[in-house]
Amino acid sequence: MEPTKDKSYTIPISKSWIGKNLLLAAAAGITIYFLINKHPGYKWVCKEMFTEDKEILSYPPDLTTGQKTALKLGKSYNYLSYVRDHTPDTAVILLPSAEAFFPAGKKSGFISEPYNKLWALRFLYPRKLVVPYEKGRTSYLHKITHIALVNGQAPELLPVQLDFPYTDTIIQMNRSVK
After folding, report:
1. Helices 75-85 and 117-124: crossing angle, nearest 10°?
2. Per the confidence metrics, is the pTM higher than 0.70?
């Protein structure tokens, strides 16, 4: 057998090849520009999410994930952590509506969607959550063991009016809600 000779191959570069590549690069650049500046999803990713991620990267490296999340989500994370720490894993919690978390005309320290069942479950699992819009749609409504109070407001489904000074807390039920 005769050894094969190494044949080097070069790409022929011509004016038409350079022109086509410059045209494709310009088209890609224009497409990316319009996606970032005109499409709401891409705009959110590039202008908001990246800036938040840059802020998170500036946190001290020795912080735990929980501490970084608390810095990012503030009162929302701290409140849900409080609820998690003060309820058993088997708890069925009645969460207030969005209006309680973000009352009209008042400043609220909460951010994002702590009233959203799926969002809150990320922090409260394995506890069960009941939200006001589920009235008549869930079997857990009559199994509620704890009630979340936010900004001094109790959930709409609560059968009694509460009158005490707590603003953001969790109370345990001695009987089920009817």
Report:
1. 60
2. no
